[in-house]
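Archive entry. Fields below.
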Amino acid sequence: MHPAFSVIFLTTLIGVGQGLFLALYTGQVYTLAQLLPPQDSQAFYGSGSFVALLFLAGGLFASFFHLGHPERAWRAAARWRTSWLSREVIVLPLFMGLVALYALFHYVGWTHPLFTIAGTLPVDFTLIIGLLAAIAAFGLFICTAMIYAGVRFVQQWHHWLTVANYMLLGLASGFMLASAFSAWTGVDLVGFFGTWAVIFTLAALATRGAALLRNRRLRPKIDLQSAIGVKHRDMQQKAQGFMGGSFNTREFFHGRGPATLRLVRWAFLLLLFPLPVLLIGLSYLIESGSLPIAAFAVQYLGLLLERWYFFAEAEHPQNLYYQTMS
Amino acid sequence: MTQLALVIDLNVCVGCHACVTSCKEWNSSGWAGPMPDRNPYDADPSGVFFNRVQTYEIGTYPDTETLHFPKSCLHCEEPPCVPVCPTGASYKREDNGVVLVDYDKCIGCKYCSWACPYGAREFDEKNRVMKKCTLCIDRITDTTLPESERKPACVLACPTSARIFGDIHDPASEAALAIREEGGYQLQPEWGTRPANHYLPRRKSRIQIHEDELIRADNPLKKEGVPLPVPQGDTIDDVAW
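PREDICTED_STRUCTURE:
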């Protein structure tokens, strides 16, 4: 498939935003359980979830460049019963709204407990909104990934590993950003978020690696015999009906050679997994404030390459009809 | 339920592209148009077509055969492109089974084209919406036209009558008859999309001639000298008059 930059930025940016929000909410829940020291509601949770909102808004902005008619984007909420794309279009603004509310409540400091469960667990507005937003975040991961995993004709995508990858890569990059954000704001949670970021990064390495291995072993389900319905071993296309290009020759092929593909694969495997882990580990050892930010930057770059490769490695059966120009 | 479709006879298609040009002509000015071209007379031309004729070579030289393969939307009975559309712009008509795009609702996200294994949809980069074969819906449903002209433009244009149009659910229709009796098949049946358009295979008529029909074993002049399997004794042919 042709990797469109609008979709690459959409899926990676909202993944980071979802992951960052989930990291912040995890921090809040841990604090509630008195496993972490309490943080300043306004400076940490308020501005942290505002950063998450910025990433989500950036993703939403990028998505409009994918549309032929962005002014009609509101119509895309119509077919949520059947279309994962439609579901994503509903869940993304819903999630953004909840994150905005979460940020607002923390920012203005409406964090007085509404009631207390069992005398020990004080529940405030942010905890309830955060829980709803966390559910929406996971829902959004599933919607985004199922847009691809649901296309049964693209065998490289049509697998639960696609959903696992979107979720774990989003969590890894989001927790990495939370660690970078803690370092930036001087909050003592760099190690906590960094540890989770490493765990998610390693888990993502396992699922993405499994997907790469699976895709290498895939045999196409359809061949030219089935595509044109002629039973013969030796068949060649001699003309595809036009001498120039067409939508069919542009949309379904990445247009690069195998060497570029190999380079991108190794680059993302390096930038996405070992390098950020090394950088965050190093920052823990030397107590550096800038290395976690570098770790996130490197991982996000790797994520962009990973998403490019995700599209490039997908083989669409329609390409069987477009093998030879003339 | 009616399911209108094309049955394309690969045995008689000569690859003249008359269906391609007549499709472009009719639909450029019809309901489904326009079908814009980019750089049509320049380097790197590109344009929207609902129908293409491709050519394949089967076998290796000198035992080869050329196959011309017209390719358009197959109007699947289980169209995978329809449920993925987020706006409902892609739909299958209830009354005749034609798969259409409502250009006023299409947001141009191209997701339907990903969900079509046949590559039947083409994005119109000028009008920024997805386009596809409509089976000339404005023509086949136009009751002001005489009955004989209520057919897709490609069908009317085909000089060898390689394209049969009709309701494949009506067992008595010409299209259903051709599928049933001439070996009509579907493309990529593995996916379960149940394409409504069918193709008729290349087929050759051969006369079966057995050896004893070429060499008359009971030739009265015994020129071939073939012994009969069983001695016949004198036959009427052996009698000299």
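CURATOR_NOTE: Helices of chain B lie at 18-29, 81-84, 111-114, 137-140, 153-157, 174-181, 211-214.
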